[in-house]
Amino acid sequence: MLWVNELILNRDHYTRVLSELVPGARRFLWIATADLKDLHVAGAGKKFIPFVDVLAARVAEGVEVRLVHAKEPGPRFRADFDRHPELLAGELFERFLCPRMHMKVIVADGAMAYIGSANLTGAGIGSKAESRRNFEAGWLTDDRGKIAELMDFFDTFYLGDHCIGCGRRELCPDPIA
Fold first, then answer.
1. What are the residues whose beta carbons fall under 8 Å from the beta carbon of 114, sequence distance 6 or more?
2. pTM (predicted TM-score)
3. Domain containing residue 61: CATH number
4. Which residue from 39, 83, 102, 170 could staple onto 51, CB 3.0 to 4.6 Å apart?
């Protein structure tokens, strides 16, 4: 039975996806985005922290995280990322690049999924002010059948199925297959 079938617009991406969906994951988070930047989210005491700190905390709590993105993030993201050994060498975190990746998806525990236009950036899904953020739209759903289909599709990237016949292989820094 479908309980959640919610349209997410603009700032609601931050509230519903980054502030509720991501922290609510207990077993795994699968994240796909075209663009990945130095995104910050609210932390304790009204202090904003890098989103990679949230991912590192999820991993430290035993949540498996898969992150696939289209291009190498900038130096500020990289510096934040490099502070977390659980992300650099941990068994529960996997990150890879696919130059053709354009979907924006977050799946939590196979039970809830976001599918939409927002990249993992401050202006896309982050906490930017209304006047500084992109116009974004997406769906939040708990339709297990559709989430299973989405996860099967996502898994093909993780397994490297798309690498074999990819027409952009020369752009890929580290092909999976």
1. 8, 13, 16, 17, 21, 104, 105, 106, 107, 138, 139, 140
2. 0.91
3. 3.30.870.10
4. 39
